Amino acid sequence: MAVITLTSASGSPGVTSTALGLALTWPRPVVLVEADPTGGSGVLAGYFHGDVAHTGGLIDLPLAHRQGALAQALPASMLEIPGSSARLLPGVRGHGQARGLAGVWEPLCVALRDLERTGQDVIVDAGRLGLVGAPEPLVRGGDLTLLTMRSSLPALAAARSWAQQLHETFAAAGALPRLGVLLVGQGQPYSSREVGKVLGLPVTSALPWAPDAAAVFSLGARRPRRFEHTSLVRGLRATAAASQTVIDQYRTNLDAGAGAPIVGSR
After folding, report:
1. DSSP letter string, 199-257
2. Residues 6+ apart with CB under 8 A from 160
3. How far is CA 27 from each of CA 14, 193, 239, 244, rounded to the nearest angstrom?
4. Distance between CA atoms of 49 and 189, rounded to whole angstroms?
5. Is the pTM of this model over 0.85?
6. CA-CA-CA-CA torsion for 92, 15, 222, 205, nearest 10 degrees?
7. Directed axis angle between helix 15-25 and helix 231-255, to 10°?
8. What is the pLDDT along the chain (266 residues), one digit of tens a residue?
9. CB-based contact 189:151 (threshold 8 Å)
10. Is the backbone of residue 225 left (phi > 0), alpha (psi -120 to 50) or beta?
11. Domain ranges of the chain
């Protein structure tokens, strides 16, 4: 499947928790990249309770890139997530370090896409759009970018201008089918259809608003009984399947020399 990037327009729609939840329920080996320029690993501090020290991560890559060994340095910069087939590439420890990654995002995107040849997919937590040091090449250059948002009126208002800008950027590159919305809390109060209509983008998938279950990913909370059967986990698996469908359809139509609309619930 290759590279899927999650990003947001504003607020706290749960990008990090969703990205981690996707990684932990993913059907294949996957790498979770913490590319949020805000700094401070939400996964290490939350899911791992701050008990895991990992001094490497993205901060290792500028030097490796200057030495022409970025792809070779990736495995050593990652951390295994126990009980899963996922690995974590931790982000920068402070927002000031993000500026040092400006020249790394583009080649990193290429290296991450190449992981597909080894049977690995990639999920990128790109954080909030518009921040200094934002990983724009990962937002533009993945196989699928999902604008992650809540379904409230403030969330719609904040996302509208960013949706238009993303639409224009992807359309200019002929890559519009690789752009969609991941809706968190559908029906609170707006539906996927209503959100898609306002933003002019298809809603690729929707997750339920399930704060207790989400705390397993965001805070490392104890898993409730039958956690694998909760609505959130079912939604995460459905999101993985929907993402695969979108990417497969895009690639099929690209090979055929024709464009196609993204699959979604418009």
Report:
1. HTS-EEEEE---HHHHHHHHT-PPPPTTGGGSHHHHHHHHHHHHHHHHHHHHHHHHHTT
2. 198, 199
3. 21, 28, 11, 11
4. 33
5. yes
6. -150
7. 80
8. 789 999 999 877 899 999 999 999 999 999 999 999 998 899 999 999 999 877 789 999 999 999 999 999 999 999 999 999 999 999 998 888 888 899 999 999 999 999 999 999 999 999 999 999 999 999 999 999 999 999 999 999 999 999 999 999 999 999 999 999 999 998 999 999 999 999 999 999 999 999 999 999 999 999 988 999 999 999 999 999 999 999 999 999 888 875 444 444 33
9. yes
10. beta
11. 3-255
With beta carbons less than 8 A apart as the criterion, state whether 133 and 37 touch: yes
CA distance 163 to 202: 11
CATH node for 3-255: 3.40.50.300
Identity at 260, one-letter amino acid code = A
